[in-house]
Amino acid sequence: MTTVNGSTFGNLALEQPPGAKHNNTLDQTAFLKLMTTQLKTQDPFNPVDNTQMVAQMAQFSSVAGIAEMNKSLGAIAQDLQASRLGSAASWIGKNALVETDQATPLSDGSYRGEIALPDDASNVIVSLVDGNGQVVHNATFENQKAGSTSFAWDGKDAEGKPVPGPLRVVVNATGATGNVDAAIGTWTQITGVQSPAGGASTRLVTPLGLLSPDDAVRLG
């Protein structure tokens, strides 16, 4: 009578041809080989329980199926990430309108943005302020209806020299009932796209920092 013990199973599982790489995982081929050996060497007076064998096969099939499904899902995730990255890459060189009071110069050195007024305003002053708190530019708008109003500045001082950013946008608006709070957005240039490792979301590289594509109100 032949007895199959733990060491025999260990030898079967670890037996590999010369030069082969060690693999501590049990694939489907190794599992079937192991089961066949177990059936050949079982004690005829104490055979392997059929119920246990079927349960082992079902468990292995389930694990193998999950592994294949995870592999397929991983491939799909990579394809989706590549697709999103490709779409975002087409934005490079374009300008994005972002809801922020920070303004950076565009490729031509100009500063552009928009303000959104919830109510009519009789007088609106848009100021660009540098890091020292000095106002470098003012733009005045009168009798503005509720909605969006654009502003732009060539980015040059009185001597024609470019003013570096970032600058802060300050809005003072007054209407029939007093001050009107305005939402502020500025245009910034998209200079690159990053796709972080680990499946993280794609990021847009801009002078304002890394932004999500969702941060772009619109492109221009």
UniProtKB/TrEMBL annotation:
**Name of the protein described by the UniProt record:** Basal-body rod modification protein FlgD
Task: Give the FlgD/Vpr Ig-like domain ranges.
Answer: 104-175
Q: Where exactly are the transmembrane stretches of this chain?
A: none
Q: Which family does it belong to?
A: Belongs to the FlgD family.
Supply the Pfam families for this chain. FlgD, FlgD_ig
The UniProt keyword set, sorted, is:
Bacterial flagellum biogenesis, Cell projection, Cilium, Flagellum
Q: What does this protein do?
A: Required for flagellar hook formation. May act as a scaffolding protein.
Q: Where is the composition biased (Polar residues)?
A: 1-10
Region called Disordered, residue ranges: 1-23
Q: Which GO terms describe its biological process?
A: bacterial-type flagellum organization
